[in-house]
Amino acid sequence: MSIIDDALKANRNYAKSHDRKLAQRPAPRIAVVTCMDPRLSNLPAILGLPQADIDVIRTGGPAVTDDVLGELIVSNRVLGTTEIMLLNHTGCGFTTFTDEELNAKLAAATGDASPTPMRFFSYKDPEQHTREQIKKVRSHPWIAKDVAVRGFVFDMETGLLSEVESVLRPTAA
Predict the structure, then answer these.
(1) String of DSSP letters for 42-97
(2) 47-71 residue pLDDT tens
(3) What is the pTM of this model?
(4) Cβ-based burial of 145 (10 A; exposed 0-12, middle 13-18, buried ≥19)
(5) Do 57 and 69 contact (CB within 8 A), yes or no?
(6) Cα gap 115→126, rounded to integer Å
(7) 94 or 166: whose pLDDT is higher?
(8) What is the rounded CA–CA span in Å between residue 53 and residue 29?
């Protein structure tokens, strides 16, 4: 049996005790953009928040792409989230290559360079990357200005979050 077949079998068991209240419209309080890395899958435990309060947006890097911006806008303007957390982490696979290197490697491995240059959103410094992502979110005109946009790096060794200060962070008047 494949992993997908195993998952389908497990789903049939899950459905027997599925909470039908989950069919109601979600009302998360915070949008969290985080990496697709499976080590970041237990956000309720990492953040100490109920699953229902977290609108999770997973992306490689985690890069705030146009698609992610669209999801954040829906999260904020349609679902009603009032805060945005950008959650990078140490030991991210996207720091182990450059876009150029991966394009070259894949073109050589497949013999097909037609998709290049593909954008993978690789980066080297998680803190600088977080600052760039905060700036990208904060500068979008459809993200409400009263929505807090904060960035963090999760340390895979310690399990602790470190806040990354943004140059755009509002100051007290």
Answers:
(1) -HHHHHT--GGGEEEEEESTT---HHHHHHHHHIIIII---EEEEEEETT-GGGS-
(2) 999 999 999 999 998 999 999 999 9
(3) 0.87
(4) exposed
(5) no
(6) 27
(7) 94
(8) 5
What tokens does 170 get?
């509002």
Predicted confidence (pLDDT) per residue in 115-171, tens digit: 989 999 999 999 999 999 999 999 999 999 999 999 999 999 999 999 998 765 454
To 10 degrees, the CA torsion angle through 115, 57, 167, 147? Answer: 140
| Residues recorded for the chain | 173
* Residue with token string 């600052």: 131
Average pLDDT, the chain: 93
- Alpha carbon distance 107, 116 (integer Å): 8
**Token pair recorded at residue 59:** 């992306």
